Amino acid sequence: MPKLSELPRSSKLQQILILGRDHWDHDGYDPDSRRAFRLAFQCKTPALGGRVFASENEEGVFYNTCKSPACPSCGHWSTIQWQRQRFCALPEGPYLGITFTMPNTLWPLFAHSPRLCRKLPEIAAHVIGSYARVRYGVEVGVMPILHTFTGKLQFNSHVHALVTGGGLKTSNSEWRLRIFFVRDKLMLSWQRLVIALLRGALDAGQFDLEIGRAELEDLLQHEEKRGWIVHVQIFQGKERFLRYAGRYVRRPPIAQWRILAIKDGSVRFWCKDRRLHRCVVVQSTIE
Fold first, then answer.
1. What is the DSSP string of 69-101?
2. What is the per-residue pLDDT across 53-88, written as a single tens digit (0 to 9) for each?
3. Cα–Cα distance for residue pair 159/276, rounded to 1 Å
4. Given phi > 0 = left and psi -120 to 50 = alpha, else beta, which region is 3?
5. Which of 127, 157, 232, 239 is the most exposed place for a label (fewest CB within 10 A)?
6. Domains of the chain by residue range
7. Dihedral class, residue 19 (left if φ above 0, else alpha if ψ from -120 to 50, else beta)
8. Domain spanning 91-237: CATH 3.40.1000
């Protein structure tokens, strides 16, 4: 694999991966993440091969890109392609944006279990679709997007869903122009299914955490009595949601322009503080 000195125009992400290679390039690391990091590590280097363009006077070598979503440059192009494809596939008209969140006490459970985390978009789509069928007798279009990191790179599992503003009636196949969702109803269904998912994983012994089984059960009982937060927003079109969601489904969780410095085993980067309504500087370890 290439070294930092072999990457004269290495990206900031490649520099971080090279400096922190001992943290991720070993058999004990998540294999999918390791594979993605190795591809991004080798992007535009001789390791992936390349093409030679030559004339009578000059010759240029262009090394292949990695095509990995963990790579900022490849992820940016993939994002544009995904947004164009979704824009053409989705019909014109009004849309709703529904956000499903959960208490921060449950985040560590999903952070330690990617398999459970990948179930969350499925649950969100089921909640929305079931509500529309029971309340209005219609089928709606739903595109759920899983988010797992905040601007500060802290784990925060939640789901954003794009929902058609109308639905197809199951009785006569006519299109109902307007439907509305009650947040509290959605919240109760979302809460019940997420707790059931976690409790099923607990019964199956899928959690390998320091906290004991009794403590986990107490936590679940406490959280199912609390009110969770569900947001419902009206969009006049699909463009805004696709621009926002594309950054999460086809790109790394941080843009390279936000990285200010990489030195002394740490990384300093910009982050938008929503409470202060301004950008702040955050420092994190290479790991």
1. TTSHHHHHHHHHHHHHHHHHHSPSS-EEEEEE-
2. 999 899 999 999 988 878 888 888 888 889 999 999
3. 24
4. beta
5. 239
6. 4-63, 91-237
7. alpha
8. no
pLDDT, one tens digit per residue, over 187-198 is 999 999 999 999
- Note the pTM of the prediction, 2 decimals: 0.84
Produce one character per residue of 224-260: b if its CB has 16 or more CB atoms within 10 Å, e if not: beeebebeeeebeebeebbeebbbbbbbbebeeebbe
CA angle 54, 43, 56 (to 5 degrees): 5
Instruction: Write down the residue that tokens 């936000």 correspond to.
Output: 258
8 A C-beta contact, residue 167 and residue 116: no
Check whether 8 has a pLDDT greater than 50.
Answer: no
Can you say whether residue 74 is alpha, beta or left, with left for phi > 0 and alpha for psi between -120 and 50 degrees? Answer: alpha
User: What's the pLDDT at 210?
Assistant: 72
Whole-angstrom Cα distance, residue 205 to residue 199?
10
